[in-house]
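Proteins fold reproducibly. Take a sample protein:
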Amino acid sequence: MLTLHDHPRSGNCYKVRLFLALIGKDYRSNFVDVLARKNQTEEFERISAFQQIPALTDGDLALWDSHAILLHLAHHYAPAWLAPLSRVGAMHAWISVSANEIANSLQPLRLTRVVDNAEAAHHLGVSEALLDVPGMQQRTGRVLRRLDRRLADHDWLAGTGAPTVADIACYGYLALAEEAAIDMSAYPAIDAWRARIRQLPGYVPPGA
């Protein structure tokens, strides 16, 4: 049995919960109270090297980082979610967008809206005085405009005829964009793509 070390408000954890639901894979959920610093223990570090969630145990194997987990699940349990060889580079490029551009814009911006600034600063590893919310807003707008241009011409990010793990990787925080006080009507192609993902069999919403 898979065990997902999870928190219901984490967008990165949501990516993994969503993908497990889409592929119909059973798992056990272990709530990790990161606000109470329950992840900052030697025991949890044996599962997750940087004490991060999500983390996944699959038999004797322990994995951390949402994108590594998504790729592990796809390779071992749902290969149909991997791009064909001709598009695998595009799939990995959009996974990288999730891990870099989205993780450095929309993800921290949303964090400043759902917890107080002191807590946001702690999770971002900076002092509260260095929280640059206007900078986050500018970076988020730039990322969303580029994503919207891509999705205006492609149903799925990797340019395939079906969704791949790249779509789930990017969707995790784009599903929560309104929690960052973003008006998504300004990005119609992203909104249409979000609707396509919501229509996939097995879909579960954030918080489920």
